Amino acid sequence: MGSRLLTNIGELLTNDPDVGDGSPVGRVRDAALVVDDGRVAWVGPAARAPDADERHDAQGAAVVPGFVDSHTHLIFAGERSDEFEARMAGERYDGGGIARTVAATRAASDEHLRAQSRRRWAQLRAGGVTTVEVKSGYALDVAGEARLVALAHELTEEVTFLGAHVVPAEFASDREAYVSLVAGEMMERCAGAKWTDVFCDRGAFSVEEAREVLRAGRARGHALRLHANQIADIGAVDLALEMECASVDHCTHLSDRDVERLGDSSTVVTLLPGAEFSTRAPYPSARRLLEAGVTLALATDCNPGTSYVTSMSFVVALAVREMGMSVDEALWSATRGGARALRRDDVGHLGVGARADLVVLDAPRAAHLAYRPGSSLVREVWCADE
Ligand code: NIG
Ligand code: FE
User: Fold this and answer.
1) What tens digit of pLDDT does each residue of 222-277 get?
2) With bands split at pLDDT 50, 70 and 90, how would you rate the model's confidence at 314?
3) Which of 26, 33, 219, 268 could pair covalently with 341 via S-S, beta carbons 3.0-4.6 A apart?
């Protein structure tokens, strides 16, 4: 394929502060962009755009980088809408429902899991996601976790091993044996994953147990991420910092000390407002984290228990409305922030050399993504490898 010029863009967010208005979102009005060989080859004002082999007219639409959804549990069977209804009536989330999804997932065929997860990925994509991270964690036995890791690899290179999601019923009386299994044979069979994650929280794994699993992941060459402080503050943020996790995720309940330490670190905080929405939990303040200098990502956390959400624009709208982010901050966090959480520099922005993953909106300004929640505003998704 030759070069392609996308011109007559009403508002372009590049996330490259060297381009356009100099803000973190690198805004250019009346913009154009040239794609060559799947990469951004030129970006700037339409009036100065070079020629290309093909020309596309955006007709004044806004264009943003493709969303980077850096936290999902896409591969599972069944659903738990009854738990959602119970929570809306006052029940609390405690992680107990994970066992139901484990039972359904263990019983499902490869074909069923593949079809279901592809549908969810198609929904994410239709809403503008171009990079996705996918976790295992709903099998919790050696062969099953290896199967989920293999299925996740069919969707993305950003595959995370989450054998330490909860302790399965058959190990209830011997947690230590389960942690050893995860850190040993299960990890070995899931070595092809890129990341290790642990649900380190009340009702899941303790800081000591999580440390053992993260160390084993690191020894296997995995980079690390952590589910922390979703249900309670048991000291998981300190562990994430000690282990130099790329990202610490949820962070619903944070102490002032956690916030300060995160601000002094390079660990990204990934906020998952779909989970607060669906568990009726208090939304953490993104403002407080931004003021402390923390780098934020926003992701869907798509899973059947706490956030059956496949829309990044819904996540952006929640972050703006409920977490104190500006629209620009939320859009940056849902794109470049997600890329930072995955330690990727080739996605999440549209600077020269980036992958040409972008979304043409059915709107003249990117702010419409938060301003018109529930509307389908994605006109076209361009993805470098399609
Ligand atoms: O990110 N917190 C742990 N894991 C998922 C929920 C899992 C479930 O309830 O099925 C989450 O919220
Ligand atoms: Fe999660």
Assistant:
1) 999 999 999 999 999 999 999 999 999 999 999 999 999 999 999 999 999 999 99
2) very high
3) 268
Give the predicted TM-score (pTM) of the model: 0.98
Determine contact, residues 60/98, Cβ cutoff 8 Å.
no
User: How far is Cα 268 from Cα 250, in angstroms, rounded to an integer?
Assistant: 11
Residue 1 has pLDDT above 90, yes or no: no
Domains delineated in the chain: 4-66+349-382 (2.30.40.10), 67-341 (3.20.20.140)
pLDDT score of 385 more than 90: no
Report which ligand 1 atom has the smallest distance to the Cα of 71: 1
Q: Is the predicted pLDDT of residue 66 greater than 90, yes or no?
A: yes
**From the centroid of its chain, how far is CA 66?**
12
* Closest ligand to residue 304's CA: 1
Q: In the 8-state DSSP scheme, what is residue 139?
A: S
| C-alpha 280 – ligand 1 centre gap (Å) | 14
Instruction: Determine if ligand 1 sits within 6 Å of the CB of residue 101.
Output: yes
In this structure, which residue's CA is closest to atom 8 in ligand 1? 305
Q: Which residues lie below 8 Å from residue 314, measured CB to CB, with a gap of 6+?
A: 274, 373, 374
For ligand 1, the distance from its centroid to the CA atom of residue 14, given in whole angstroms, is 32
For residue 347, the CA-to-ligand 1 centroid distance in Å is 26
Q: What burial class does residue 204 get, using C-beta atoms within 10 Å of its C-beta: 0-12 exposed, 13-18 middle, 19+ buried?
A: buried
Q: Is 305 in the pocket of ligand 1 (CB under 6 A)?
A: yes
Q: pLDDT per residue over 151-166, tens digit each?
A: 999 999 999 999 999 9
Instruction: Specify the ligand 1 atom closest to the Cα of 201.
Output: 2
Q: Is the CB of 98 under 6 A from ligand 1?
A: yes
The ligand 1 atom at the shortest distance from the C-alpha of residue 230 is: 2
Chain segment 354-375, per-residue pLDDT in tens: 999 999 999 999 999 999 999 9
For 35, how many CA atoms within 13 A lie in the half-sphere containing its CB?
19
- Ligand 1 atom, smallest distance to 301 CA: 1
Does ligand 1 lie within 6 Å of residue 230's CB atom? yes
What are the residues whose beta carbons fall under 8 Å from the beta carbon of 344, sequence distance 6 or more?
A: 68, 131
Residue with CA at minimum distance from ligand 1 atom 12: 306
